[in-house]
Amino acid sequence: MADIQSEIRPSRLRRAWDSDLAWSFRHAPVAVVSAVVVLILIAGALLAPLIAPHDPFNPATLNLMNGFTPPGQANQFTGDLFLLGTDDQGRDVFSTILYGMRISLFVGFSAVLLAMVLGVILGLLAGYVGGWTETIIMRVADVQLTFPAILVAMLIFGIAKGITPPEYRDQMAIWVLILAIGLSDWVQFARVVRGATLVEKNKEYVQAARLIGRSPFAIMLRHILPNVLNPVLVIATISLALAIIAEATLSFLGVGAPPTKPSLGTLIRIGQEFMFSGEWWILFFPAATLLALALSINLLGDWLRDALNPRLR
């Protein structure tokens, strides 16, 4: 009998495949291509130690004679061939991109996670508690919105780095960068969650939870939060691309990832120094990788926003 019921009941994988979200994804060619590009880039970053031909940050493996080797050409002194060429220090550009993406993706995901957690908590408190709590949180959000996010991130980065002991600054630079970007992006999460919470807290299921004696914390966590996650996921997807671009911007300006752990932004900053001397590939390939990554994530976010919008179904 159990075997018959298991055959009749569809598996979780089958139910997921037949869901509206999966159907929408399969019928959106732009989303499929974007997802493939993102998966390839993330896989390349995660498997960099296995895929990269060289370890670009190990001085013992570098040969200055390989410097400025054009893409796909053998070096005239050593005879070594590099797929995307080398930079001024003889580092393989393909390898530096793979390792640089690891830093950019780590900073992007961590910063968005920090901004999402902080924004969701403050948005729930502002929408459910109301009163002075809502006033203080939303006025702080309004003040922060008057400044460009990149300037807020630079300010937070400068303050955090200033209070860090000099001997730990390079070690803590990545974490300070995550803190700066995360604290500059929480506002949009808080505003959306606050608006959704104001709608949800007046519905019958919340009133019923109050009547049976559930605590405000339990109501916010167990009842309201699951019903406001859809817009949060959309914002998180789009914010990931913005966080990666913000990290690249800060690193390009010299206030982001340290030279010992260069990200895509650091590689672009290094490449622009040689742009007008003919070594175009040092700038072009890291910039093209950053563009492909950010654009693909943005397109996925646009599809997710449309797919989760009930008015468009």
Automatic annotation (TrEMBL):
Keyword match Metal-binding: no
CDD domains: TM_PBP2 (cd06261)
Ranges where the ABC transmembrane type-1 domain occurs: 101-301
InterPro entries, sorted: BP-dependent_transpt_permease (IPR050366), MetI-like (IPR000515), MetI-like_sf (IPR035906), OppC_N (IPR025966)
Compartment(s): Cell membrane
Any GO BP: transmembrane transport
Main location: membrane
Transmembrane segments: 30-52, 103-128, 140-160, 172-193, 228-253, 280-304
Bilayer topology annotation: Multi-pass membrane protein
Gene Ontology CC: one annotated term: plasma membrane
Highest taxon in the source lineage: Bacteria
Keywords: Cell membrane, Membrane, Transmembrane, Transmembrane helix, Transport
Transmembrane helix in keyword set: yes
Pfam families tied to this protein: BPD_transp_1 (PF00528), OppC_N (PF12911)
Stated family: Belongs to the binding-protein-dependent transport system permease family.
Protein name according to UniProt: Peptide/nickel transport system permease protein
